[in-house]
Amino acid sequence: MGDDLRKVRPGDPLRVPARTYNAFVDAALDLKRRQQDRFSGDLRDGGRQHGVIPVRNDSGADLERYHVLAIDGPLFPPGDEGPEKTFQNRMALKGIEPDEETVPGRFVVAREPIIAGEMGPCVIHGVTPVRLYVEEEEHAFADIKAGEHVLVSGGSGGTAILWKEDGVGEKWAIVDIGRPRSDKIVAILGEATEIQGERFRWRYPWSEAAIDGDPESETFGRYIQVENGLSSDGDPDKYAINRFESHHSDVPDEEPEGIDGFGALKSLFIPGQLQNPGGDQGYCPRKAAIPILRPILKGVAVQMTAERDTRGGTVWCFQALNGIELVEFDVPVWLYV
């Protein structure tokens, strides 16, 4: 047997005796058996050691190492296939391909290839290598995306990118799964751009900002732009929106009466204007002031949050109260005649 397993030098003819080949097969079977024993042990102890848990690949396709599956629930639900202790003592999950209904953050990373329908160890919490599709190099977070078996970078997410290869596209990365979210930054707004076809809504260019801590600086204690920080970088698709403005463009179901400003707010009478009696309208002044919503001024610092839209994209948002301008308006004669 010793001669059958001796090593071959470069240039020597390769002859594989039957006993040698069978030894290779026995070694492969032993490895598979030990892997199965490890999975069984993981199931018995709950599979929670070191953030690794057994997962069955129900995606319908073989999964490569360090690719991801969405969590589809426990493999042994409470009360199913035996007493409830089965659920408590045999912790394992079902993994599927992410789709539009998958909740962000609910995924695992395969530690080794998993054949469709088979079990394999997956990282559910902690630091791990992973395949990552980098959409923007400045992205510091990652999450799952519908139809993808790799993580996708973004401005927000529950998974922090600790390191990644340079460039965009599919890359190697090291991520920390389960870290608390940290997707808020301070940003200085640029000149607002009106959203075409909507009332009282704008998009805002922005740049990441921080308080100047240099006592010798003229801007000490004020927010200044962070060098090489995040920004919309002149791309309208990255401009931020103000949550406060989100629904002021809604038009009421019924035709509003009288003179309306933003949000169907009624006109305000201007003090000192004589009222004119008559008609169903009662007493009305000749002039009124209509409240009009105005955009947030350029240079204002706001807390910016990266959120996910319904398609899994990143949208930058902030919340700030808009200024209101009272515009003088001549009341039509039919209101008081």
Descriptive overview:
With 337 residues, the chain is mainly β. It folds into two domains: 133 residues; 152 residues, no CATH class. Helices cover 9% and strands 34% of the residues. The strands form five sheets. An eight-stranded mixed beta sheet has the order 12-13-16-22-21-11-14-15, with no helix packed on it. A hairpin with a 7-residue loop joins strand 12 and strand 13. The radius of gyration is 31 Å and the shape is elongated.
Shape: elongated
| SS content category | mainly beta
Please give the share of residues in helix: under 10%
Q: Sheet with the most strands?
A: 8 strands, mixed
How many separate domains make up the residues? 2
- Low-confidence spans: 277-281, 333-337
Cross-sheet strand order for the largest sheet: 12-13-16-22-21-11-14-15
